[in-house]
Amino acid sequence: MKLINFSLISVLVILTFYLLIVGQDILQPVVIALVFWYLINLVANSYGRLKVGDKVLPSGLCFTLSLLSFIAMFWAAVKLISMNVDGVLEVAPIYQVNLEVKMNGLLSYFGIQEAPTLGQLIELINLGQFISAAAGSLTSIVANSGIILIYLTFLFIEQKNMDKKLSALIADEDKEQRVRKILQKISNDVRKYVSIKLIASLSAGTLSYIFMMVIGVDFAAFWALLIFLLNFIPTIGSIVATIFPALIALVQFDTLGPFFLVAGGLTGIQILIGNILEPKFTGRSLNLSPTIILLNLSLWGLIWGIPGMFLCVPFLVISMIVFSHLPQTRTIAILLSSDGRISDLEEEA
User: Fold this and answer.
1) Considering the entire predicted model, what is its pTM?
2) Alpha helix locations (H) across the chain?
3) Where are the transmembrane segments (predicted)?
4) H or E element, residue 326
5) What tens digit of pLDDT does each residue of 198-241 get?
6) CA dist., res. 46 & res. 293, Å (int)
């Protein structure tokens, strides 16, 4: 019997990942819409806990404030990115000169007499292929944005009937209560993860911005925004977020001192936030194995690219909770956990 269950679970897992790969163009916008739907409702609930005198804010006003908050954040991010693109175009000639000087010095150090020019190096790159790929990616993003907005709109329209549908789907009252507890557990743990990552990423971005402003790195606000966003990707995100500002420091300044200073300083901030403060905030709230998180990150990155990397931990949290409350998959939940202890819903009630 156990062998049959194991075989069925294995087939189900393989089939699930096959569908995720084949149906990526359809499923990815749906999942992203679900994420935004959850986050907007999460912020709306936070507004709902605010009091004006002895009264709480109306639910409609909370939803409106949450939606306006997200629109304002997206507008600010787009504005910041567009401003920095213009800035990069202005300083590009200076960066080119500094890069050529450093390249010539490096090649001379290794005894290469005739150093290739930057133009010759650029000619080696297939610009046509690069532009086509970039245009394709941009077209895909714009197209998916429209689809995501449509899905998001219908999710908001449908959400008022979700409780009724759940009650209609499950006739047994005890089973319905158990399903509701599982859904509440999923919501609570995902909220904990989002809150912890938000605090950690905001702290890393703010400290990095102050540090880069002191050093004088160009476009410090943009790099701080990038650090904030990439810190939501476990481990790899913080590494990539440190590399880009360090490379800018390499081509911006005439000496190598600022490059090493920026690389060392930003790495120190990431270690402080990621290895000391964030684990202290997290504690056992998620109880996920770090090794499993890294494997999960690689898997979702392979399947769905960057969106998959952002979503890998929430997916893992949901999977672990569902597995822990099904007798057939409880063993898998134990393997996913950090310490092997799986709590029951009754213990948390």
Assistant:
1) 0.77
2) 2-22, 24-48, 59-109, 118-123, 127-158, 162-169, 173-215, 220-230, 236-252, 257-271, 278-282, 290-324, 330-336, 345-348
3) 5-21, 27-44, 56-78, 130-157, 194-215, 221-251, 258-277, 297-323
4) none
5) 888 999 999 999 999 999 988 899 899 989 988 888 878 888 88
6) 28
